[in-house]
Each structure stands twice: as structure tokens, then as C-alpha cells.
Design a protein that fits this description.
Oligomer: single chain
Shape: elongated
Largest sheet: none
Number of helices: 2
Order of helices and strands: HH
Radius of gyration: 33 Å
Number of strands: 0
Strand content: under 5%
Structural class: mainly alpha
Length: about 90
């Protein structure tokens, strides 16, 4: 009879332990989903801010090119020349 009692106690304790593990796993999943949602929202917010910034910078660049096309072409040429010189200097090493 003692063996049956021990067996029943062990079985009950295993069931209780399994329930606790499942409970903690569910809480963990809920927290993980909550933090994933917060992260996704923050990422979307920063992406929107970045797109607004790029859009405003693009507008300023288009305005500059329309107002000063020769200066814009000279600036692009100079930048390309400098980049080519730097890359050429790096390839010689």
C-alpha cells in the first residue's frame, strides 16, 4: 500500500509540475508576443520617420538641381572625380 501511495503522490506531483511548466511557458509566449509587437511598432515608426526624412531631403535636392543645374552637375562631377581618385589610390596598395 505504501508503494501505491508513493506512486500516486509522484504522479500527482508530476502532473502539478507539468501544469506549472505549461503555465510559465504560456506566460513566456505572451510576453514574447507583447515585446515583438512593441518592437514591430517601433520599427514601423522609425521607418516612417526615415521615409519622411528621405522625402524631404529628396525635395531639397530636386529644388537645388532645378534652381542651379550647372552647379549641381559640377558638384556631381567633382564628387565622382574624388571617389574615383580614392578608389584608384586604394587599388594601388
Amino acid at each position: 500500500m505504501d508503494n501505491d501511495n508513493l506512486s500516486n503522490n509522484a504522479g500527482r506531483m508530476m502532473d502539478e509540475g507539468r501544469e506549472k511548466v505549461n503555465e510559465y511557458a504560456e506566460k513566456g509566449r505572451e510576453k514574447m508576443n507583447e515585446y515583438a509587437d512593441k518592437g514591430r511598432d517601433m520599427l514601423n515608426e522609425y521607418a516612417d520617420k526615415g521615409m519622411d526624412y528621405v522625402s524631404s531631403a529628396n525635395s531639397a535636392m530636386v529644388k537645388f538641381i532645378r534652381d542651379e543645374p550647372i552647379l549641381a552637375m559640377a558638384t556631381i562631377f567633382a564628387a565622382g572625380y574624388l571617389v574615383a581618385r580614392m578608389l584608384n589610390g586604394l587599388s594601388r596598395r
